[in-house]
Amino acid sequence: MNDVVSVDPRTGQTVEVVAQETTTDEVAQLCAAALAAASGLDALGRVGRASLLRSLSAALEARREDIVAIADRETALGPTRLGGELTRTTYQLRLFADVLDEGSYLEAAIDHAGDTPMGPRPDLRRMLVPLGPVAVFGASNFPLAFSVPGGDTASALASGCPVMIKAHGSHPATSRLCFEILDEAGRKAGAPEGTLGLVHGLRAGADLVAQPAIRAVGFTGSVTGGRALLEIIEQRPERVPFFGELSSLNPVVVTPHAANERGTTIGRELIGSVTLGAGQFCTKPGLVLVPAGAAGDSVVDAMAAAVEETAPQVLLNAGIVESFERISARLAQAPEVETLARGAAVDGPGLAVAPLLLTTRAARMPPEVTEECFGPVTVVVRYAGENELFGAIGELPSSLTAAVLRGTGETELPLTISERLRSRAGRLVYDSYPTGVAVSWAQHHGGPWPSTNTQHTSVGTTAIRRFLRPMTWQGAPAELLPAELTDGYAGIPRRIDGALVLP
Amino acid sequence: MNDVVSVDPRTGQTVEVVAQETTTDEVAQLCAAALAAASGLDALGRVGRASLLRSLSAALEARREDIVAIADRETALGPTRLGGELTRTTYQLRLFADVLDEGSYLEAAIDHAGDTPMGPRPDLRRMLVPLGPVAVFGASNFPLAFSVPGGDTASALASGCPVMIKAHGSHPATSRLCFEILDEAGRKAGAPEGTLGLVHGLRAGADLVAQPAIRAVGFTGSVTGGRALLEIIEQRPERVPFFGELSSLNPVVVTPHAANERGTTIGRELIGSVTLGAGQFCTKPGLVLVPAGAAGDSVVDAMAAAVEETAPQVLLNAGIVESFERISARLAQAPEVETLARGAAVDGPGLAVAPLLLTTRAARMPPEVTEECFGPVTVVVRYAGENELFGAIGELPSSLTAAVLRGTGETELPLTISERLRSRAGRLVYDSYPTGVAVSWAQHHGGPWPSTNTQHTSVGTTAIRRFLRPMTWQGAPAELLPAELTDGYAGIPRRIDGALVLP
Questions:
Q1: Can you give the pLDDT at residue B1?
Q2: C-beta pairs of A335-340 under 8 Å, 24+ apart in sequence
Q3: Which CATH number fits domain B24-101+124-246+455-482: 3.20.190.10, 3.40.605.10, 2.60.40.10, 2.170.130.10?
Q4: Would you call A457 an interface residue with chain B, using a CB distance cutoff of 8 Å?
Q5: Which one, A163, A422, A477, B487, has the greatest CB density within 10 A?
Q6: Average pLDDT of chain A?
Q7: Which residue from B39, B444, B476 is facing A471, i.e. has the nearest CB?
Q8: ipTM above 0.95?
Q9: Residues of A numbered 366-425 whose beta carbons fall under 8 angstroms of chain B's beta carbons: which are they?
């Protein structure tokens, strides 16, 4: 047995032993309970699960102070950020309840029997059904929004899938508290025994993914971690979907017009985005394309000044400190890269690092600078003219986001830039910064490899699609159909004989 | 260089050399052309691509006689089946044109900027965009519906993705003719150079999947073939989606009531489904659960008589003959399995085999009988009581389909059976047979591994979703948005601030 300990990153000291690592047998027992809960959770129906989600939201709100306090002690992200993160999570649970009420997510379709140009067609009725128990991996950087509570858990429960959660080792006490709150509230709201499960430890995470009962995996983390889990899935007798949100450089392009108009403001705001949450966002701008010349200089000078004014930032755990130091050194030492600015030197105990600003030229951009480095560092790439800009964009990997900062009313160059960025991103941001990912109907948080490995999102209402699969009933008598597919039902939007019909 | 030859399966003789296997360099050149075509095909827009699809449909119709004749010579599937298959394909092209006209497939959503319970939200607009060039693998058993023309090609072109097709070695001449017709019609209809490409040979197929320009793969074939292509994808620097339709047992359950009411009819119809297309359908019923006792005997006796009356059936190629003989022998020799009936002995040249009917008991069902065997063979599993029936269902792998044949008005047992089959199938068929997969809005042709490896369909209008990914524009000026996401646009259903709005 190995202790699971809670560390205070401000001091680097262990505060308490939270749990023991979950054993292989315990993982199997929890997964068996989750499998047993699946049909009951599905049978709650949209109304029952909407009510369950609202209860979970209220239960978290009722314990807001305790949750924020323990999360702050474990992550050093601060009460403001963590309070906002909890607000996001409780809102998200209620939004998924709205998604259930609205019902479009079922993609219900009815084709009545009849003749077609390809011959007679039987009665066909299609909608989405839950996959079964889902494994969710908590992320280090969102203890409340991508962890025990958060987008994966909310969307999986909404879809009707029991959720087995692997607690992140960076915040086991927060995970335990949130789990206890959700588990108790879930039972009171009628969720079947086994609807939620919690495991601790790397080995338990691997065991979880190998369990036959697990029908999908949601993961937010590194490419290396994602690949390791994918390899486990590839060895299962039955492969299951893996939804990985893995790595993202999040390039930002500052046009010459924008630099000219408001270079200093842009520079200051950019560093605000880079250092938000100590640079530990998957949407942190990791590479900024800035024009050569005086206008661009104003951006870069403001960035450098802002970095120098920034106090040391406390990172989430010792592993992130180590990888920040290793990768940022690799970037800084790459050919053609210079260090522009560094924040105040770190002094004292704890897991703090100094923010770092690097620069290179587009014409000689080394491949090292296109690697994601978690933490407060970014690379300014100076471009002289559009050809250099487009050449550099052509070297970028795919990201969750790409941003364009334009001059007032400027459209021609931004359009060309957008066309080149489009194949490399899942979200195009204009005149703003990529950090801050609203939970909404039109949000998309995904993109081509390596940002994700699927065509799905982990933020926004369409995240529910990950945990559902289509099913068609052919020639089924009404008694054997789900209510939403019977002729008389009118509670949700449906496609009937090809035409979308609203309630 | 290796010859690509066309073989007549009725004689087993080579008829002509169709082409040379495509070299690695040629594959790379074709993929470069496909990549260059991508933005132009996207820019045709929904209207332009709908027109393109209708032109392709008309061009195939105009050459119907030539296409059916050459396909019959290469596959021995007969002019009636092949004429129907071409009708399906040309209808499908027109149906995807309708999908483009209707526009829901874009999943367009607009969230206007505003305050939310989690704080201010920027303007967010989401819709689906094409992935880029797609590789499609022709299937042996559908020379006209899952090959150069067919569901993958139609849905990929509709989505705006150029298509590189790997011709199946069983029908290279049919592939060449269809490609020439589609390529010429496409050019006339304004498709950019490189929109369609054709390659021949196993090595060329592997090269195709490894090409960086290829952004998704559509494959209909064996689990072994699918795994081999997945391994190539896993070694790419950038992983891409693989849509495999792989293996399917398609269990059929005959209830005691159904057997009692119309056992003889069911038995005869079942063998009709088993021997349709010489048993070379991915939806062939490969295992039939029949009650023990007299009523079940009437089903089985009719099946045996129908098998004995069936003439030898010509298979598509020597590889399928070999695997049919090998796997059906393994099934027949498994413990507790008996041979019930065999069709007339094969006499003469060509790739013919005799249909085969096997049987075993649910209480002692050996695992061998749950393996798919392509070709005219099925296994009857006799069950004595519901416990034996449910036990046998619990041993079945996932399939594309599962069918229940009920007594008139019977619902109780069918409901319990359906609940147990649901997690093991993508389509539940009542009082009919799984062969015959209508192309329509509510169709689903997919299911958990090993039937497919994704949550998508390869038949029906939602097949287009495979070749699209979501993209969100944040704070974009109207000039930089796709028309479908601008405020004034009203041509398609859209979700606006959470509410679905019809045109």
A1: 66
A2: A335/A364, A335/A366, A336/A360, A336/A361, A336/A364, A336/A365, A336/A366, A337/A366, A337/A368, A337/A369, A337/A379, A340/A300, A340/A303, A340/A304, A340/A307, A340/A380
A3: 3.40.605.10
A4: yes
A5: A163
A6: 97
A7: B444
A8: yes
A9: 398, 406, 411, 414-415, 418-419, 422-423, 425
